[in-house]
Q: What sequence folds into this?
């Protein structure tokens, strides 16, 4: 599992994950993901390169999402593969980990969250 | 059944071993030209069972190993997962509730929820020393034939 972190637009962060988000992958992304979440702001997690997702990986994403939500931000998952999408929908986490299919959808989700919080 | 349609391997129980299990199962069943979702489902179920054994398995009752047997079953796959940790029946655990926004603590039980969702058949037997979980994952086409 590889992780890279860049800016996403104005004040948001893009986290790009590539590889297997399994038990070892979750160990690897745990600290950087929690650091990003603790910094505040909106986060888009680019899931296009994630080819395997287990529940331990979902737990890491949920921890990050709830931390971000506490700080009035939002985390969205960008364009996971169909197999990974099925895992997310099966566990019923799409309420906390909403899926978007493009950068524009991510921006719209962040804008909607901001207006909803206002 | 030809000899090439069954594979068995024994592993330790650590995070590194779970990663090795996934590599092994992907390679073993990858040779069988099964639908992608069947292979993914098999890897996912085994990863969840193995992680559950590692995280919640308690004290070992015997040789502390995971033994996996995978068998091709048409365009699906049958799996036997054996470990010697404390008796635990995954078919009798209440499914995890879906988490909701505003819930700060991620719920447990997501892994077993996935196993139940992806396995078309799931059974458990405690032989006194070992947990023996057997499961079958079928292709969508095979599922449709069974329900037709």
A:
């Amino acid at each position: 599992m590889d992780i890279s972190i860049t800016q996403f637009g104005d004040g948001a962060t893009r986290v790009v994950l590539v590889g297997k988000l399994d038990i070892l992958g979750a160990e690897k992304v745990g600290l950087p993901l929690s650091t990003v979440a603790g910094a505040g702001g909106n986060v888009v997690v680019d899931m296009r390169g994630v080819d395997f997702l287990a529940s331990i990986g979902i737990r890491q994403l949920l921890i990050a999402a709830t931390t971000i939500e506490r700080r009035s931000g939002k985390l969205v998952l960008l364009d996971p593969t169909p197999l990974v999408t099925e895992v997310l929908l099966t566990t019923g986490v799409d309420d906390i980990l909403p899926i978007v299919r493009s950068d524009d959808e991510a921006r719209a989700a962040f804008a909607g969250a901001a207006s909803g919080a206002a | 059944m030809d000899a090439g349609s069954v594979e068995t391997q024994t592993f330790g129980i650590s995070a590194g071993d779970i990663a090795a299990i996934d590599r092994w199962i992907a390679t073993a069943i990858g040779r069988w030209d099964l639908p992608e979702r069947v292979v993914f489902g098999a890897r996912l179920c085994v990863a969840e069972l193995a992680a559950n054994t590692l995280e919640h398995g308690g004290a070992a009752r015997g040789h502390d190993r995971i033994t996996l047997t995978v068998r091709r079953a048409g365009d699906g796959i049958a799996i036997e997962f054996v470990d010697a940790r404390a008796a635990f029946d995954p078919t009798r655990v209440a499914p995890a509730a879906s988490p909701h926004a505003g819930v700060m603590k991620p719920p447990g039980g997501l892994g077993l929820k996935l196993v139940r969702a992806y396995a078309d058949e799931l059974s458990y037997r405690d032989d006194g020393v070992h947990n023996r979980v057997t499961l079958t994952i079928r292709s969508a086409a095979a599922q449709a034939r069974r329900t037709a």
Q: What stands out?
A: Helices of chain B lie at 15-30, 36-56, 110-118, 140-147. The mean pLDDT of chain B is 88. The beta strands of chain B are 6-11, 66-73, 76-83, 121-126, 131-137. Chain B is about 35% helix and 25% strand.
